[in-house]
User: What shape does this take?
Amino acid sequence: MELSLGKECLVLYLKKQLSYFFPDDLSVQDIDKHIAETFDRIERCFSLVNNRYFQKEGQTYFNHLNSDHYSMFLYFLSNTLFRNDTDISICEKLFYLNKLLNGIDAFYEVELPDIFLFSHPIGTVLGRAKYSNYFLVSQECSVGAAREAEAGKKNVYPVIGEYCAMYKGAAILGNCNVGDNCKISAHSLLIDQNLGSNSIYIGTRLTNVIKENRTHDNIWGIGS
Assistant: This one.
């Protein structure tokens, strides 16, 4: 994978950002230990994105000045550190930094799939859910519980199949089981409702249209 900055330079760049925004003098050295694993995850993910910004002269490309790239990097790094039981304060800083720089709420404990794409995701909140590969999300989208659970009960979260896409302002909330190859149209709300595979959902629970979705999104044209 080709990088706009070498790994050592990128880590230094990130540490300077963390030091500027969070001047508490706490160590962030655990980043060095897990940067290689993070980039293994990024390379696999980016290699399957059919978009000119993710490819350069036939190679997978990571550009630290592309906010979609960088927001995905910060999520992958925070989640990798969390998986490896590192200092939780570093995970918190990376999560917070992603919100500050890129306007996305992608919590480090939330397990996004190995293959996903943030497409200018300003204002998007990706909460707890079961996500599957080839997940595309745009701006102002929401995923998570529909409401706070009653005392003694657990929240119910969505289950989202492969090759699913959410467009501007779309939401998937609560007890939803979304099949493979589905699209949630702009400003549509799917709440406590199942959606069969190969569907395009338009509207809300009260007024909606479901159309057939015959093909996978062409953003996944490489190797998928």
